[in-house]
Write a structure and sequence with these properties.
about 230 residues; alpha+beta; Cytochrome-c3 Hydrogenase, chain B
């Protein structure tokens, strides 16, 4: 009998947190997945729809820092802002707000393919205000994947990823606006170390875990060889 019909592995038995046996399902996300950091692989063990264990790995890429960006682009601050807008668009799309995601993508494209700065700055200000005022977004993302100062210090992560998913989304848009205004980004672009991601997604359902990963504002990732982190 085929134990992996269609290439999808069947669930196996495992003990739940309350002592009852539940089926375990092993699932891999990435490295190529819509609204997902390029190069990142997350291998999850699920009980029901909850992630009970996870590990990450990176897949090699030829030029990870320039993935999806035109070769003629030379302004680092515009590229930095465009990446933040792209990541914000992914998070908004996963959250179910298609209109806001489309606005973020349009700002990204203007930054990448034109020399206009005033237009993207004004559009980004409007998007930031719209996202900040959204009661629905506040309700749906508040207290999801929270990181406090102690969490960040323990993981060696900068303060740019403090708060919950909503806080990180707003900070993402603020960093894009600051970069357009000419402020050079400071600190590492990778806010959370890859090996910290498994701890962040354990205990959350799969859809929420994707929101958490999207909120980390990661640049495309790569390694010279595949390296795993559990």
């Amino acid at each position: 009998m085929d134990m992996a019909p269609g290439g999808i592995p069947l669930a196996s038995g495992g003990e739940d947190r309350d002592g009852l046996e539940m089926d375990l399902l092993h699932l891999r996300l990435g490295p190529l997945l819509a609204y997902w950091p390029a190069g990142l692989v997350l291998r999850c063990t699920l009980q029901g729809d909850v992630i009970v264990d996870a590990e990450t790995s990176l897949i090699a890429a030829d030029n990870p820092t320039a993935a999806g960006e035109p070769r003629h682009l030379r302004e680092d601050r515009r590229r930095f802002a465009a990446r933040r807008c792209d990541n914000a668009a992914s998070l908004l799309k996963l959250a179910g707000w298609d209109d806001a995601a489309s606005r973020a993508r349009r700002i990204r494209d203007t930054l990448l393919f034109t020399d206009d700065s005033d237009g993207p700055a004004a559009e980004l200000h409007r998007l930031r205000r719209m996202v900040g005022r959204s009661w629905w977004l506040r309700w749906s993302l508040r207290r999801v994947g929270p990181l406090d100062a102690q969490d960040l210090a323990r993981r060696g992560s900068p303060a740019t990823v403090t708060g919950d998913v909503r806080d990180r989304l707003l900070a993402m848009l603020d960093r894009a606006a600051n970069s357009i205004a000419g402020q050079q980004p400071t600190g590492p672009l990778l806010g959370v170390p890859v090996d910290a991601i498994p701890d962040l997604v354990r205990g959350w359902d799969l859809a929420t875990a994707r929101l958490i990963v999207a909120s980390l504002d990661l640049d495309p990732l790569a390694a010279d060889r595949e390296v795993s982190h559990g």
